């Protein structure tokens, strides 16, 4: 434990004490000791804007997480890709395994903030803030979160991102949990409506730098299914701007145009990301046809619960989410048809 005091031995009033834990257990102990007077700091990019904007008070104790070893790497395992919570957005937006197996996250990380911010900002801070633009991507990839949590037995546990979002929504997230990493399962997602058995072979394709779809599998009838995955963000400017709305979608499409294992999510701004289950139900097992895209936009707009602020009214965000989804699906399929 290595506290950095701002001046000699005693901190002047209003100057926070900065702690440098060597491991996550020590970070938990510091939080337990200082409670609501302490915050975890990863890249500090979001916290700084909150402090500078007067949205949050500068805390008496800052607990650095970037002094903890072993939370920066992105590991490509057989069944999943694991991203350490201290991996920067830049790292995530450049990693080949994420491009292939968690393409919506890869794309999200390339569209959050500006390059200078992405050098510092971590994926853990984006997720743990509960309002980061990466969250819809986590939801469509069925990602799970790896926690060390002082309020949980056992201390270390893995939790589906969708379940954690629900805890946040109902105000029951643990305030004594450090996010250690995020796991993205590879291959087809588990669904109640599988047209194939779990023994189906998954084939990897060479990574295509431009295309959204990144892998195929062949079902027991020999039909080839291709992954379709996209992320879209709407901001107040073209680039380097906080989002008004973000959407992500992932599914598999057969050569005959049937969609399956559909995941749809929306979020953005300071709203909470959510899965759009009615959209998923509408698309599951359906043959793609551009004529029903306006219906998809309508269902998504109805289902997405958003909020109003001085920048945009809730109905605008809802309608935008629907339009982004319909347009994203249309563009992705057009790109596939054109071999991009
Ligand atoms: C100019 C600018 C533009 C931005 N644009 C965007 C944007 O387009 N989209 C977007 O989503 N964000 C944007 N941000 C916000 C921010 O940069 C990102 O959300 C970033 O990923 C946050 O990561 P961080 O490491 O800096 O988090 P921090 O600021 O260090 O922390 C954020 C929150 O998460 C908590 N936290 C951090 N790490 C952990 C952990 N491992 N376990 C538990 N809690 C943790 C902190 O206590 C804090 O509450 C922008 C910021 C700036 C300054």
UniProtKB/TrEMBL annotation:
Protein name: FAD binding domain-containing protein
Keywords linked to the UniProt accession: FAD, Flavoprotein, Oxidoreductase
Lineage top rank: taxon: Bacteria
This protein's record includes keyword Flavoprotein: yes
Domain FAD-binding PCMH-type: 10-189
InterPro entries, sorted: CO_DH_flav_C (IPR005107), CO_DH_flav_C_dom_sf (IPR036683), Diverse_Substr_Oxidored (IPR051312), FAD-bd_PCMH (IPR016166), FAD-bd_PCMH-like_sf (IPR036318), FAD-bd_PCMH_sub1 (IPR016167), FAD-bd_PCMH_sub2 (IPR016169), Mopterin_DH_FAD-bd (IPR002346)
